[in-house]
Amino acid sequence: MDRPYRPRWHDDYALLAAVAANLHAQRATHYPRLIVEGRITRPTALDGLRVMRTIARTWRAIAQLRPEPFGVHTPDEGGAWPFERRHHLTVAARAARTRADANPGEFEIVGFADAVDTLLWWETATMPARLLADITIGLRNGSYLHPRPASAGTPQLKEAA
Q1: Is residue 80 part of a domain?
Q2: Highest taxon of the source (predicted)?
């Protein structure tokens, strides 16, 4: 029986949160120099920081089994659209893989590239990590184990009555 593909670090949420934070920190450190050198514009840098900050915030919450941070899906509130997340992680994954391919004996570099690939994989997974974290939170706090009594009705039924 064939098992579905899962990347190397697919279940290490703490590691993925650390890698996402590292990607954000790399941009925060290097983007000012790239702006001065004229290699990227300030708006491009700010967009890149916003998207990676959103990815880092999302993964920190997943690793800590906390609810999703407010506004992570809305750029106007400091978040990022899913296509932006996928794009920036694709660029980061390509850069990390290029570096890993040039340094095959450097296990930290190869592992980092694998972890960035995993972040990108989760962005397109049919059962996203955020959903799995929300289910775990619900099971831990008991909200999935104690259904509402039938007499309570649903909010829609109460309003209609």
Answers
A1: yes
A2: Bacteria
